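Blinded run. Sample ID left blank on purpose so nobody reads anything into the name before looking at the predicted structure. Input follows.
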Amino acid sequence: MTLAMELLCQTHSDIKTIITDLELPVCDWDDKWIDVYLDNSVKLLDICIAFSSELSRFNQGNLLLQCALHNLTACPSKQLVRACSSLDGWRQHIGSKNPKLQNCFAILNSLTETLSLPKVKNAKGKVLMRAMYGVKVLTVFVCSIFAAAFSSSANKLVDLQVVETCLWAEAFENVQAYVNGEIRNIFSSGRTTVVKELEAVQLSVKTLYPAIQEGVDPKEAEALQNSISELGKRADRFSQGLDLLTKEVDGFFQIVLTGRDALLSSLRVGSSGPDTANNVQGQGVRQIQ
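Blinded prediction complete.
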């Protein structure tokens, strides 16, 4: 997931380079292109906020794990009740739903419905539209996978139909079919998450929780310590993964935000009069709202 988000960041950075290389001034852009770009950028910012919220929720859950591990490591025989309470709190926290994620599916549906390759006569405009179309396809694909992974459901996975004239259409559809198929297989098999680090922690908690509930049997003390140690290692790996992914999601948010700001700034600079400038500013405010 970290590498996928890193790719998305790089792709959105590349589109800025393409726009610069084309030397196609913003004042020459069709108004519809600008409207679509501004609308899409707001939706992507909303998606990033939802993903950041979920990652923050996972990190909050990790605090409960660390509390349980501290009690068990310090003196397991005296802190079993507290450890049980923390582990139970973690299970409930992880099993709860994040309402902000539900909005992601509506946004992704909206982006999918507007996914089209407009017909453009201008040569540079045609190159720009094809590039932006490809970026949008990749963005919806990756964000759809993230939404499915975070919500623990494959019901809302998006299966995109790409314009056949794109040279990369077949390759993309093959990757999409494979990845979406794997995710659907995971959930249909009864597993509750596609995030391997989270699943590893869940398995450790599932083993450890009933063991400490029943009390520490001196004969099984060593096995219990091994389980505690294993949970600690898995929790650390999960936490490290969250930190890396959070960094990439924040980076994607900044790339989208700066790209949007740059476009609005160019429109203001290129406006021919105060009325045009006011219209541009009004448009920006409406899109953000």
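Unblinding after everyone has recorded impressions. Residues 2-288 form one domain.
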